[in-house]
Amino acid sequence: MKKTKGQIEAEISEAIIRFEKEYMGRGPLEAKTYIVDDLVLVRLKGVLTKAEYQLANPVDIANGRTLIKQMRIALLEKGRPLLEAVVESITNQKTISLHTDISTRTGEKIVLFTLDSPPKLE
């Protein structure tokens, strides 16, 4: 059964929130997914912990932001097969690539999946 774009986007948002809670230890305050052609963009707000905000403060440690980004990227790379599998199962398309970045100022994280073709929509 084909799904609407909104249904697929909502399922991906829920799956990413679950991943963040179960795998990373803390879920985002907000998640929104956008499908644009063969791209799936997930925007997560409020992903940093209070401790990470303290570490990101440039007054305390000059390389705190770099440490946060390195740690979060390393954790995501470990969980990458799980993320790709869940997006593939929801979209019924193969994941070609995954890109991510996090803002240590706003606590916003972006995850971008490139699929082999656009999802088949209702």
Topology:
Elements: H1 5-24, E1 30-36, E2 39-45, H2 50-56, H3 64-91, E3 95-102, E4 109-115
Antiparallel strand pairs: 1-2, 2-4, 3-4
Structural class: alpha+beta
- Quaternary structure type: single chain
The strand order across the widest sheet is 1-2-4-3
Form type: elongated
Number of helices: 3
Helical fraction = 40-55%
**Main β-sheet description:** 4 strands, antiparallel
Mean pLDDT: 92
The stretches of 5 or more residues where confidence is low (pLDDT under 50) are none
Q: What share of residues are in beta strands? A: 15-25%
In angstroms, what separates the terminal alpha carbons?
8 Å
Number of strands: 4
Q: What is the N-to-C succession of helices and strands?
A: HEEHHEE
How does this model look, in words?
- With 122 residues, this protein is an alpha+beta fold.
- Helices cover 45% and strands 24% of the residues.
- The chain has three helices and four strands.
- The protein has a four-stranded antiparallel sheet, covered by helices on one side.
- A hairpin with a 2-residue loop joins strand 1 (30-36) and strand 2 (39-45).
- Helix 1 crosses helix 3.
- The radius of gyration is 15 Å and the shape is elongated.
- The mean pLDDT is 92.
